[in-house]
Design brief:
The chain is mainly α. The protein has one domain. Helix content is 78%, strand content 0%. 45% of the residues are buried.
């Protein structure tokens, strides 16, 4: 099932790449790394959008998309923890506050991307009759809220099974 979702590696890799960029801020590959980070962010958004669109166009089932969405979100948890620690350390130094801001933007970008996939899965689950309208609205909105997105993804997947 997961073979056709290999492009989602960009979605999983974006926060990890952001962390490695923050750790290597004084490295000699900073310009290349930032360019790569922005390209990965754009690729992740495109892949997430296309995955959500294919779900809404009924090319993929709700269960399948919700399972993949939960997997992607769970794979990103270690990166979020690393980014949080690194961002907290960077906030201590005024000159590296922009690094913390960049990490925050990457986190928002990633949550938005996985939120698109999750919301599409929730809409599809509603259309397939697994969940009702109010639950779909609540779970769909929660897909875009940090930490609550994991809980919403688990609930949506359980309801779709």
């Amino acid at each position: 099932m997961f073979k056709k979702y290999w492009p989602l590696i960009f979605v999983v890799a974006a926060p990890y790449l952001c962390f490695f960029m923050a750790v290597d801020m004084n490295g000699s590959f900073i310009i290349f790394g930032l360019l790569l980070l922005y390209l990965v962010r754009l690729a992740a958004l495109a892949v997430g959008g296309l995955t959500a669109l294919s779900c809404l166009m009924k090319e993929r089932s709700a269960r399948e998309v919700l399972a993949v969405n939960l997997t992607v979100k769970l794979l990103q948890i270690p990166a979020y923890l690393l980014i949080f620690v690194c961002g907290a350390v960077n906030l201590l130094f005024i000159l590296t506050a922009y690094v913390a801001l960049s990490m925050f933007v990457t986190d928002l970008f990633t949550v938005a991307t996985t939120g698109l996939i999750g919301a599409a899965g929730v809409i599809r689950a509603k259309n397939e009759g697994f969940i009702d309208g109010l639950t779909a609205v609540i779970l769909g909105v929660l897909q875009f809220i940090f930490v609550a997105d994991i809980v919403a993804a688990i609930i949506a997947l359980v309801k779709a099974k």
